[in-house]
């Protein structure tokens, strides 16, 4: 199975104090043990590294870079994808929706992915099957 991984999931896996950590860890282990192909975007990587650096520190950034990043298939965002996502952001006109989210949705469409490991309700709004499934109604 091919699965998109969002910043919200990466952060929940990396930070034991995060409210979603208990739900994230078993999903992460299952994904790794199941030999699933894990996808993300270059924008999610930038967002994740910045978040880890500011909230946890550089040791966490190094750990993520050494142990998690090599496991990922990275969708490198080109100008066309950026423009499409930027347009989608402007059309949506919502303060709670980010450019990184819109880039992720565009990447999901281009990669024909239907499942995402995340704690972001915007993915479910896009018709994406999210993991952990039981959190569909209760994520931020």
Q: What would you give as the CATH superfamily?
A: 5'-nuclease
Gross morphology: globular
Q: Could you tell me the mean pLDDT?
A: 94
Count of alpha/pi helices = 7
- Please tell me the total number of domains: 1
The number of distinct β-strands equals 5
Distance between the termini: 25 Å
Biggest beta sheet summary:
5 strands, parallel
- Computed over alpha carbons, the radius of gyration is 14 Å
How are the strands of the biggest sheet laid out side by side? 3-2-1-4-5
CATH architecture: 3-Layer(aba) Sandwich
Low-confidence stretches: 135-140
Q: Which CATH C-level class is it?
A: Alpha Beta
Fraction in beta strands: 5-15%
Q: Which structural class do the helices and strands define?
A: alpha/beta
């Amino acid at each position: 199975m091919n699965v998109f991984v969002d910043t919200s999931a990466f952060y929940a896996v990396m930070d034991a104090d995060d409210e979603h950590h208990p739900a994230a860890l078993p999903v992460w282990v299952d994904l790794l043990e199941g030999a699933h192909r894990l996808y993300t975007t270059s924008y999610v990587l930038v967002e994740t590294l910045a978040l880890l650096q500011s909230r946890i520190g550089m040791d966490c950034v190094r750990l993520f870079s050494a142990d998690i990043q090599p496991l990922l298939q990275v969708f490198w965002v080109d100008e066309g994808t950026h423009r499409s996502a930027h347009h989608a952001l402007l059309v949506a006109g919502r303060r709670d929706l980010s450019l990184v989210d819109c880039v992720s949705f565009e990447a999901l469409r281009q990669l024909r992915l239907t499942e995402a490991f995340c704690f972001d309700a915007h993915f479910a709004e896009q018709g994406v099957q999210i993991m952990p499934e039981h959190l569909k109604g209760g994520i931020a």
